[in-house]
Amino acid sequence: MNPLYGFLVLGALLFTCGVVCMATKRNAIGVLIGVELVLNGANINFVAFSRYQPGFELEGMIFALFVIVMAAGEAAVALAIVLNFYNNHATVDVDSAEELKG
Amino acid sequence: MELQIYIFWVLAGLTGLCAIATVVTQNSVRSATWLLFTLAGTSAIFFLLGADLVGAIQLLVYVGGTMVLVVFGVMLTAQGPFINMKTSGAEWAISMFAGIALFSVLCFGTLAYNEAKPKAVDVAGGVAASVAAEAKLQPQNPSDSHNSVTIGQALMGSGLGPMHQRAGQVTATHYLLPFEIVSVHLLVVLIGAAYLARAKKRKGVAA
Amino acid sequence: MLDWLLDFLKEYGLLLLAVVAAGALIGFMLVNAIFSVWLERKVAGRIQDRLGPTRVGGKFGWLQTLADGMKLLVKEDSIPAAADQFLFRLGPYIALLGSFLAFLVLPFGNGVVAREMNIAVFFMLGVMSSEVFGIILIGYGSGSKWSLFGGMREAAQMVSYEIPMALCVLVPVIVAGSMNLGQIALMQQGIWKWFVFHDPFTFAAFWTYYTCAMASCKRAPFDLAEAESELVAGFHTEYSGFRWLVIFMAEYGSMFAVSGIAVIMFLGGWSTGVPWELTEVFEKNLGLGAMGIVIGNVINVLVFMIKGWLLVFVMMWVRWTLPRLRIDQVMMMCLKYLVPISCALLLGVAVWTLFVPGWVQPFVSAGIFGLCMLALLWLIFQMVTLAKKPPGAGMPGMWRTTGLPGYQGAAKQA
Questions:
Q1: How does pLDDT run across C393-409, given as a tens digit for each residue?
Q2: N or C: which end of chain A has fewer CB within 10 A?
Q3: Please, which residues have CB within 8 angstroms of residue C317's CB and are 6 or more apart in sequence?
Q4: How far, in Å, CA of B15 to CA of A11, rounded?
Q5: Which residues have a Cβ under 8 Å from the Cβ of C145 and sit 6 or more positions away?
C-alpha cells in the first residue's frame, strides 16, 4: 500500500475531530481550537501530496505555508472578536451571540 | 524505509489520539494542551515527509504564536479558576454519529482515489506519463532536498524557481502575487485585531 | 547470531544512533545545568563580595549543585490542592522538551550535530518558542495567583521578544546566505571573519540579539516572571523537588542554546580564531586521517562550549549587576526600541550586502575588529588601574571614604 494513504487518513481524522470540536464546544475558544484542527488536517494532506504526488512538490508546501500564516491571522482576529464579545456580554458562549448588532 | 513507516504509524497514532482528546476534553486549557500536542505531532509528520521548512514554521507560528494566543484568550475570558465547557449527552451522541459518518466518507474517498488515478492519467494522455508518475511516487531522500531555498525563490518570484514542463514549454512557476497578498492580508489582520481588541469604553457608561 | 545482529543494525542502526545522540544531549543538558548553577552561585557570590559555595567537593564547592540535586530528588513532591493535576505535572516537561529540541540541531563542532538541518536556526527559534507554552501551563496549572501572574508576564514577554530576536538572527543569515548552522560556522574561520566584525549592522545585531536572548531566557534584568520581590517566586512558586529541577534544567539549557546561536551566528562557532579549520588541519595537513577529525573535533567542541559558557557567564554577570526593570518597561523596551532597531538592522544589512563593493569589505571588517580590540585593551587597562585605586574611586558620585578611620586603603596611601 502506498504510504500516502496513511497520511490522508490521518488528515481525515484531524479534519473530523476539528469539525466535531466546532460542533460540540459552546465556548468560542473551543470553536477556534476546532478550526485549527481542521486546518491542520488539510495541511497534512497538502504536505503529503507534495511528497508523494509528482508535479505537486512545491505547490503542496507553499499552500501549507499559506494556510499556516492565514491560520495565525485568523486566530488573532477571532480572539480579538472573542475578547470584544466578552467585554460586551461577559460570556464567551457562542449560543448567546444571537443578536446581529452588538 | 520500513523504519520510517513504523515511525509514521507511531506518530500518526499519537497525533490522532491527541486530536480526539482535544475534542473530548471539557476543560479549555487542557483541550488547548492536547491541541498543542496535535500540532507538534503534525509538525513531526512534516519533518518525516522531508518538509523541514513547513515543519519549523508550524512550530514557530502555531505552537509559539497561535497556541499562546488561544491560551491567553482562555485566561482572559475565564470566570472561574478552571473553566469547563459542558456538552449535553444528546449533543455528544449526535456529533459522534456525524463525526464517524464524516470520517468514514473521507476515508472511502481517500481509498477511492487509488482507483480513480489511472483514468486521470489516461485523460492526460500516455502510459509513459503514468509510468513516470509511478516512479516518482517513491519518496525522495529528504536530506538532498533543498526545500527552503526552492520555496524561498518561488515565493520571491525569482526566475531561479522550480522549472515545470507544461505543454512542452519549460516555465518557472512562482508565487509572488499570493505572497504579497498574504503580506497585505497580515497587515490588515494586525491593524484589525488591534482595533477590535483595544480597550473601549463600554456603552452606557458615562465618560 | 552475528548475522542477525548485523541485519538488526542495518535496519535499526539509525534508531540506535538517534537514541545515543539524544542520550548524549540529555547528558550535556544535565552537566550544563549542574555547571551553570554552580557558576551562577560563584559569580553571584563574587559580585556581592562573598565566596559562594566553598565546602562540598573539596575546592570551590564544585560539587555543591550535585548535593543540591540529591536534596531536591528526595524532597517531598507536593502538589497544591487547588492545582490542575494534569497540567501541573505536564508543564515542566514541555518546557524541558522545548529547550532540549533546540540542541538537536546545534552543532558543537565540525559535523558534531545530532541532526544536520538546512534550516537549523529557524528550527531552533521555533522549538524554543514552544518553551513558553510550558511556562504558561506551569503558571496556569498551579492554581495560584502568583504563578498565574508570573506565567502571564512570561508569555507576554517571550512572545514579544521572539520578534526582534528572530530578526536579529536573520542579519547574519543574510550575510551568510544560509540557515545551516554548520555552514555558517565554517564561513567564519579566522577571527576577523567572525560575523560580529563583518559590518556595522552585524556588530549592532549581536548586541541586540544578546539583549533579546537574555529577555527570552527570562534572565535578569528581564526576569519579571519570577520577580521574587513581588511574585514570591513567579511561575514556579508551587514547585518543589524533581519538577523544580526540571524547570531549572530547561532554563539553563535554553540559556546555553541561545548563547550557542550567538556563538555560531556571530562569534565564529567553534573557530579558535586562527584561519584554519582544525579538523582539516589534523586530517590532511598533519596526515592523521580519521583520528585527526576526532582530535580536531574534540578541540572544536571544547572551544565551542567555552565560548557558549562565556556568554552564559556574561548573562549571570548582568543578572547580578543590574536592577530589575518594571514589566511595562520590559514590554516598552521590546516593542518601542528593539523591534524598530532590529528592523533597521535587517534592512541595513540587506542594503550592505547588495551595494557595498567586495573590496571594501575586508577593510571594514579589519576596522571594526581593530576598534573592538582597542576597546578591549582600554577596558583591561581600566580594570588593572582601577584595581589599584581605593574602592569607589572610579565611580562618580560614590561616597568618598578616603581618609576616614577604618578605611582599608588608608595605610597603603599614607
A1: 555 555 555 555 555 55
A2: N
A3: C43, C47
A4: 10
A5: none
